[in-house]
Amino acid sequence: NAGVTQTPKFQVLKTGQSMTLQCAQDMNHNSMYWYRQDPGMGLRLIYYSASEGTTDKGEVPNGYNVSRLNKREFSLRLESAAPSQTSVYFCASSEDRALPYTEAFFGQGTRLTVV
Amino acid sequence: DQQVKQNSPSLSVQEGRISILNCDYTNSMFDYFLWYKKYPAEGPTFLISISSIKDKNEDGRFTVFLNKSAKHLSLHIVPSQPGDSAVYFCAAQAENTDKLIFGTGTRLQVFP
User: Fold this and answer.
1) What is the pLDDT of residues B96-111, one digit of tens each?
2) Do A43 and B44 touch (CB under 8 A)?
C-alpha cells in the first residue's frame, strides 16, 4: 500500500521555468491538498480539492495552479518559477471527515530549489 | 496572518523527563485540533487530536490539553524518548471543512 506518492523528490529550476509536481493516492480519498513547508512558517496550504473537478485556494495560492485530474491524482503547477517558491512541497489526502476530524496522510515531499 | 502559532521553534529535553509543546490559535471557529509529528525527509504523520468540547485527550505517553478560553493547547510527552526527536506541528480545523491549518512547528530534541 503506497499511500501518497509524490514525484519528483528533488528538483532544481531556473527562474522563469515551469514545472508540474505530481501527486497520486491509492486510498480512495476524496480530499487532496498541497502544502509548502518553509523555515519559521510551518506548513501552509496552497490549494485544496474536496473532490474530482473541484479546487479551492488555500492560504498561499499565488504563483500556482492545480489540476484534479481524477480521484487519485492532484497536480501542482508552477508556470514561471521564482526564488520565493523554493520550498518543500507536500501533497496530502484525507477522507471526508469520516472521523470527527480530518486525518490527512502526507507524501514524502518534493524539495524544490529555484535559482 | 498566522491563525495557529507555535512560539517555541525548538525544545531540548532529557530522556525520561516531560516534554511540553505549546500552541496558540486565534480563530474561535476551530472545532478540532490535531498534532502531527515529522521526521526529516518524511511527510508529517498524525499523532493525536482533541475536540473543542474537551479539555484533555490521552493516548499512551501523549496527552493534549486544551484551554479554550485562552485559545491555547499543549502536547505533553511523558516520559520522553530519543525516538520522539522530531518536528511537531499543531493543526486546527473548523467545522464543516476538511482543511487543516498548521502552526509553524517546534523541533523537539530528546537527549540521553
Assistant:
1) 787 889 999 999 999 9
2) yes
